[in-house]
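## retry 2 of 3
previous attempt timed out at serialization; input unchanged, resubmitting
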Amino acid sequence: MLSRQDNENIYLMFSDNVHFWNDRRLLLKPAFPWELVQIGNCGSPIETEAGWLVLSHGVGPMRQYCVGAFLLDRADPSRVIGRLREPLIEPNQNEREGYVPNVVYSCGALLHNGELIIPYGVADHATAFATVPLAEVLAAMESSV
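## retry succeeded, writing output
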């Protein structure tokens, strides 16, 4: 399971009992300015040939939320093998105002015919959709190997 047990980092957790998740391993820390305050996962990992694609959210200065992504090894998901340096989605001029300003957030995405389709919330008052070719997302990732 992916979790954020300390309100800052992403952990990979293990359990033999679905009711108790006490074994955790640090997976990812904030590394870039757009995720400086905290990071968390946005929904379930998506299995691809390149690895497990995980959408993430990062909170940066002025409590701005952005959507990012990282890639886990398919055989060993405790290994981060790629990560976006820049946000995949960030609030634009039209998405900054609302109940909670400067926030875009997703609870998951799906892969269809090579396109990543991402529904996301805008400033806690509206929803939108973004699409991007999976190949472009993977090509933009920095290798963490």
